[in-house]
TrEMBL record:
Coiled coil: none annotated. This is Zn-dependent metallo-hydrolase RNA specificity domain-containing protein.
Length: 349
């Protein structure tokens, strides 16, 4: 998890660590793709793979009892599918004893691409008079690029939030040139209201408005391509706006006009909590005339046939299916000992 639970100072139980509790010192080390590093007696080769989030990695782990291959999350239908294929080639050459394979979409027979997302989205955006709202994982830079291209091809400007602007700048700073800059002429940066709710108002000094935001956020407030809800509301047919479900309250200020559309480009609900959340989301969309939302998605995970092809190519002696709700689907593999791991158990090579 991205947080740590620590004992409460008063009373029993645990609480989430925050800034007031101080910073925990951790031994954090970075690695480079295709360069081995060591943890104890193990030598590990990290390999870049294609996924919906940047930095996805497959691992080839050299131990005294043989080689272990761990796929991580990966796909073979993205813009960088060659990364995943190269990982498979490397893994097959070392003849692993054990393989840990993801199986998120093991029951799915096919995979849709980013081109599919752009083409289908265009059907609902092209020629529309209203605002085009898109929801996709905030760190998914491949989907961001898809909707960036979709906006341009439909003579619109992509509206992102400031955290995405920072992500674009960090990615480019680290050599990812395929992504646009945060100050790209086809991008606007939207700042949501915070506690004071003064952003976008002209009757308060900029210094007071800026107090609502932390230091790194203030940098993007100073850029020329900042946009507020009033501007978006006045010219709705000019924008494709990112808005996740935590930001639907902005619809009260934007007031989408007839001809607006909401495109959902994330995975389907897969738990009871997510299904309950979806009912609340549907109520919001109905209130603003955006229901039903258009569901157009390309997964960050490989489909069943691609996973089976990968496993057969790597050909481990033992396979552990992980990250899947359907482990039994792996039973159809022949010539490979499939072990279904159980929580808390230790497995030796």
């Amino acid at each position: 998890p991205s947080f740590q639970l620590i004992p409460k100072k008063r009373g029993e139980g645990l609480k989430r660590r925050d800034a007031r509790d101080g910073i925990e010192e951790r031994d954090v080390r970075t690695f480079e793709f295709d360069k081995k590093f060591k943890i104890g007696d193990m030598e590990i080769l990290p390999c870049r793979v294609d996924h919906s989030l940047p930095g996805a990695t497959g691992y080839i782990i050299y131990t005294s009892e043989g080689v272990v291959v761990y796929t991580g999350d990966l796909r073979f239908h993205g813009r960088h599918k060659e990364w995943s294929y190269e990982f498979v080639e490397k893994a097959a050459k070392v003849k692993p004893v054990v393989m840990l394979s993801e199986g998120t979409r093991i029951k799915e027979k096919e995979a849709r691409t980013e081109d599919y997302v752009q083409q289908e989205s265009t059907k609902y955006i092209k020629g529309k008079k209203g605002l085009s709202i898109v929801n996709f994982p905030i760190r998914d830079t491949e989907r961001l690029l898809t909707f960036y291209n979709t906006a341009i091809s439909n003579n619109r400007t992509l509206v992102l939030e400031y955290r995405q602007a920072m992500l674009l700048d960090l990615m480019r700073k680290n050599g990812i040139e395929s992504l646009p800059k945060s100050n790209d002429e086809n991008i606007r940066i939207f700042y949501p209201k915070k506690s004071w709710g003064l952003i976008g108002r002209d009757d308060f000094p900029e210094e007071q408005i800026a107090q609502d935001y932390s230091s790194w956020e203030k940098y993007y407030l100073s850029l020329d391509n900042i946009i507020n809800v009033r501007e978006i509301s006045k010219h709705q047919n000019e924008y494709v706006m990112f808005m996740n479900y935590f930001q639907l309250n902005n619809l009260m200020d934007i007031k989408p006009i007839q001809g607006s559309v909401h495109i959902r480009s994330i995975c389907e609900p897969f738990s009871e909590d997510m299904e309950l959340d979806q009912k609340r989301i549907d109520n919001w969309l109905k209130l603003f005339g955006l229901y039903p939302e258009q569901r157009i998605h390309s997964s960050g995970h490989a489909c069943g046939p691609a996973i089976f092809d990968m496993i057969k190519k790597i050909n481990p002696k033992v396979l552990f299916p992980i990250h899947t709700l359907n482990p039994a689907a792996f039973k159809e593999l022949s010539g490979i000992d499939v072990v279904f791991p159980e929580y808390g158990n230790i497995y030796e090579l």
